[in-house]
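Quick illustration, no need to memorize.
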Amino acid sequence: MTTTEPYLSACTDSSNPPEDSSWHGTHVASTAGAELTNNSQGMAGIAYSAKVLPVRVLGHCGGYDSDISDAIVWAAGGHVDGVPDNTHPAQVINMSLGGSGSCSATDPEGLAVAQANSLGAVVVVAAGNSNADASRFSPASCPGVITVAATGITSRRAFYSNYGSAVELAAPGGGIYENDASSGTQSNDGFIWQALNSGTTTPVPNDSTYGGYAGTSQATPHVAGAVALMQSARLASGQPLLSPSAVLSILQSTAYAPSIKPSRRTSIGAGILDANAAVRAAVSSTAGSAGGTTGSGTGHGNGR
């Protein structure tokens, strides 16, 4: 933690003191499926019986792009030098993170995504919160990922959400303000509410703290959780897992059109996630199966 040495002095000082944890990863994982569900308490996770594989790639001092690339490969079951092999490969990887700069197929992150896809892992990433073209951000623009924009309660593209041809579909991320405006009065309905933690830098066991966040980070695990449900339904029906490309095809073909449509320039892809329709279509699909080794359960790795 940042309050003890040697970490305290690594990237903090008297003018830049360490901050309490935001529990961003906890919030994201809870939406995807980590939240205890059907217990009459708190919120619900989407794929709440899924197995979660937490992979931390960003620490209190940040991290390197190489850390993210290695984590993608490792989470999918690939080998990373100096790290014990992952014996529980994730079938869907959630990445609620990103930064500026485009990503090509030959970039390290692009190569990592390609390797993960070849192992059967679906990689779902946040479009970003800069109200800009997602093609200028990474990993949102990496080939092979499913890039997710954010919508508010009215179905309008959230004012902060990135957009454009790099986006495959959208999901609820919170519009923050009433009627999903870009400013004004904040609304409780303008946030995604999920589990947090009352600890400052260390989690409090069996905590029951909840909070509302908004962002494409919050939209992304809705899709990752839906993918986990799709793959779990395939296994439950005695069918092989869908390939990443087949998963994307189903997500896009079952997405529904927002009632408040964005302009062509600010496209949010095929529409808004319809998890129920996607799961039903996954079970009936005759599309290609995943190339990687399948397990008995469906897990998802966290970006942070």
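The first strand starts at residue 51 and ends at 54.
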